[in-house]
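Internal tracking record. Fields below are filled automatically when a chain is submitted to the structure queue. Please do not edit lines marked as system-generated. If the sequence contains nonstandard residues, flag them in the REMARKS field before resubmitting.
Queue: standard
Priority: normal
Entity type: single polypeptide chain
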Amino acid sequence: MNLTGKINLAALEGALFTQGKNGQDLFVIDVKKSKLFKSEKGALYLDLIAYENKDKSISDYMVKQSLDKETREREKAEGKQRPIIGNISEMKPQEASAPVVKSSDVFADGEDIDNLPF
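SYSTEM-GENERATED OUTPUT FOLLOWS
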């Protein structure tokens, strides 16, 4: 099974669009506010959890940020819910349609097709 999806990084807490000195668009994420995880080797991780959607017309799964138990319980007590930051869908296999080839397309008029070796 192959999956495809999108994540809206702007939905993370502490995310900000801004402009650089030369007018370029910049996207900045506050690592602490967004609860990203920085490894000892310098990699930056966003923990995710996918929930199956009841309405498959939108997508197969909705994606939220996965948080540690303490943060989940605190936010639940405060009535906060993490936003849906993306979705994932199963890729449906596409049926390949073979072209229909007629013998008249292959053999020129008048050629004897009865002399074929098979």
